[in-house]
Amino acid sequence: MKGIAGKRVFITAGAGGIGRAIADRFLRAGARVHVCDVDEAALAETNGVCDGLSATRADVADWDNLKAAFREAAKALGGLDVLVNNAGIPGPTAKAEEIAPADWLRTIDVNLNGAFYSARLAIPLLKASGGGSIVNISSTAGQHGYPLRTPYAASKWGLIGLTKTLAMELGSYGIRVNAVCPGAVDGARIDGVIEAKAAARGVSADEVRAAYLGKSSLGTLIDAEDVAETVLFLCSEGGGRISGQALAVDGHTETLRT
């Protein structure tokens, strides 16, 4: 895709799942990529697997830990052109009055504070590069209500506000900021969410899965590669006039009341 070759890209939670799919897509387009992740096994498989890809262990909710990761990324890449804030956890599945404050705080710390910390550290590097892109991976849960998933939904709505505000602050520096809002992405993570929702509601996992599929116009789950292609486009020359947007990649989700 035009305008990606040679770009220096930092991806949080980039050693597995959606993050790894995004990293692989940037690499295929000729970018250089540094990822951070908390998953030691995934990092071991990622680090040094190909030219142009480097990795650091980091918890995005830990400011000092993340600062060290950005120092390593800047050294490995020689600067920064793109930040993809992908790190996120599903958080608890329960009614609001049953959610432990510690579970609420951990979800917000990773999903929202981690994105702010990463942007805070990336902005000086992007300014020094003369511009660039930040893409925040939000969710359709950031565009709808999401019963039994209060911390997750609140964090993803918060990412939309962060996106639009940073786009306004940074546009004059040539830095574009967008959010991608995936629907339910096929894989182990959504399987766990479906099982937790089924247990919370006292129904079968098959019933909850059918409800997920029935809430999108296309009637399908999303592939991680769908998200990766969208992120790549937003950071390419083709997306050069797109900023401050929350772009859903969800088969047209109509509601998340499942």
* Radius of gyration of CA atoms, rounded to a whole number: 18 Å
Beta-strand percent range? 5-15%
Largest sheet: 7 strands, parallel
Mean pLDDT, as a whole number?
93
Distance between the termini: 37 Å
Number of helical regions: 8
Outline: globular
**N-to-C order of helices and strands:** EHEHEHEHEHEHHHE
Assign the CATH superfamily: NAD(P)-binding Rossmann-like Domain
List how many beta strands DSSP finds: 7
Order of strands across the widest beta sheet? 3-2-1-4-5-6-7
Instruction: Enumerate the spans where pLDDT stays under 50 for 5 or more consecutive residues.
Output: none
CATH topology: Rossmann fold
- CATH C-level class: Alpha Beta
Q: Return the CATH architecture.
A: 3-Layer(aba) Sandwich
Structural class category:
alpha/beta
Helix content: 40-55%
For the record, the count of structural domains works out to: 1
Report on the architecture of this protein.
The chain is of the alpha/beta class and about 260 residues long. The chain has a single domain, classed as 3-Layer(aba) Sandwich (Rossmann fold), CATH 3.40.50. It is built from 8 helices and 7 strands. It has a 7-stranded parallel β-sheet, sandwiched between helices. Helix 1 packs across helix 8 and helix 6 packs across helix 7. The radius of gyration is 18 Å and the shape is globular. It starts with 7 loop residues before the first strand and ends in a 9-residue tail after the last strand.
